[in-house]
Amino acid sequence: MLAVSILNRLMMAAATLFGVALIVFVLLRVVPGDPIAMMISPGATPADIAALRAHYGLDTTLPVQFGIWLKSVVSGDFGTSISLKRDVLGLLGDRLPATLELAVAALVLAVISGGLVAIAGTLARRTLLEPIIDGLNGLFLAVPDFVWALALVLVFGVFLPIFPLSGRIDPSTETHFATPFYLIESLVTFQFAVFADIAAHMVMPVLALGLPLAAIIARVLKAALSEAMVQDYILLARLKGMSNLRLVLQEALRNAVGPTIALTGVQFTFLIGGTVIVERIFAYPGIGNMAIDAVINRDLPLIQGLVLVFGALFIVINLAVDLLVAAFNPRLAHG
Questions:
Q1: How much is the average pLDDT of 324-334?
Q2: Three-state DSSP class for 143?
Q3: pLDDT digit string, tens, across residues 196-243
Q4: Cα–chain-centroid distance for residue 256?
Q5: Is 60 exceeded by the pLDDT of residue 302?
Q6: What predicted TM-score, i.e. pTM, was given to this entire model?
Q7: Based on C-alpha coordinates, what's the Rg of the chain?
Q8: What CA–CA distance (Å, rounded) separates 26 from 21?
Q9: How far is Cα 92 from Cα 274, in angstroms, rounded to an integer?
């Protein structure tokens, strides 16, 4: 049953990705503005403009353009960036790992800190500490990621210049990476000085992305833990002499983690989307920062490639979340 469910979800994912590609392709071509007009020089002749339009496949009807582009995408050719004059797939391969490292680091921060806050709030039930924890968590929940980014720039970039303000690594660092996963590669190859420099550049973006998600995880997990703590099996365990901490960690947590995983997966997709603004603020060289430049330059091949990547990421994350939820709930795994 699980294999059939995965196959059905993969078929739905393919259909969803096709729909996303179709909608974005059409919308990009019906909005005002001509990308070719941004590329031509002042002295270009009509023949030059026509040749450039034919080179990028913009001289045919929309259905023909979509068919040609879709056929190229299926074969692994995402086209050439109009503004950067590079292969779109190569650009995505260079920039995507930076965004993934940033997003995964923010997710780890959010899960750990949000889980600790939820456990602390559950242990502090019906005490003076509980409303304080809930109030602080509500404050963190109300502030969006880009506001956190600006605040962190002011605090740790201007008033207390502890962390680097922009970039992914110090330009003066003399090292050559075999992969675009700089953080992981520097750690695996024991380049701890390089690892520390990359991590320092990630601190503020990770905090900006992770703090709002941590607040969401804390609220949902605390509510699930509070509901679990009044169940009969918790009462029975309490009668056996278990401490509150042991009750929360050993009994309630494993039953409350299911809905928290489901919500965390959904919010993680929004977190990846939030990297667009945060990467721009910190000049972080990921696909989010590149997406803004692509939109400004009306770089159609690059925008289409970016949208497909974001869509594929969302689908993969949702599929992984469904599998994790099923793994933590045997009824779903066999249903």
A1: 60
A2: coil
A3: 999 999 999 999 999 999 999 999 999 888 888 878 787 887 887 778
A4: 24
A5: yes
A6: 0.84
A7: 24
A8: 9
A9: 17
Tokens of 212: 């709002």
Tens of pLDDT, residues 76-131: 888 888 888 889 999 999 999 999 999 999 999 999 999 999 999 988 888 888 89
Could you give the CA distance from residue 96 to residue 101 in angstroms, rounded to a whole number? 9
Tell me how long the chain is.
Answer: 335
Distance of CA 67 to the CA centre of its chain: 30
User: How far from 200 is each of 75, 205, 258, CA to CA, in Å?
Assistant: 39, 10, 33
d(CA 217, CA 263): 8
| Tokens, residue 310 | 């974001």
Rounded distance, CA 121 to CA 132, Å?
A: 9
Q: How many helices (H) and strands (E) does the chain have?
A: 14, 0
CB contact at 8 A, 278 and 205: yes
**Dihedral over Cα of 24, 25, 27, 28: its sign:** positive
From the number of C-beta atoms within 10 Å of its C-beta (0-12, 13-18, 19+), residue 226 rates as middle
**For residues 212 and 68, what is the distance between their CA atoms, to the nearest angstrom?**
42
CATH class of the region 93-328: mainly alpha
Among the listed ranges 29-33, 142-146, 264-268, 328-332, which one has the minimum average pLDDT value? 328-332
Long-range contacts of 86-91 (CB under 8 A, 24+ apart): 88/301, 88/302, 88/304, 88/305, 89/305, 91/290, 91/302, 91/305
Say if residues 79 and 72 touch (Cβ distance below 8 Å): yes
What residues does CATH 1.10.3720.10 cover in the chain? 93-328
Could you give the CA distance from residue 21 to residue 218 in angstroms, rounded to a whole number? Answer: 35
**Whether residue 335 has pLDDT greater than 50:** no
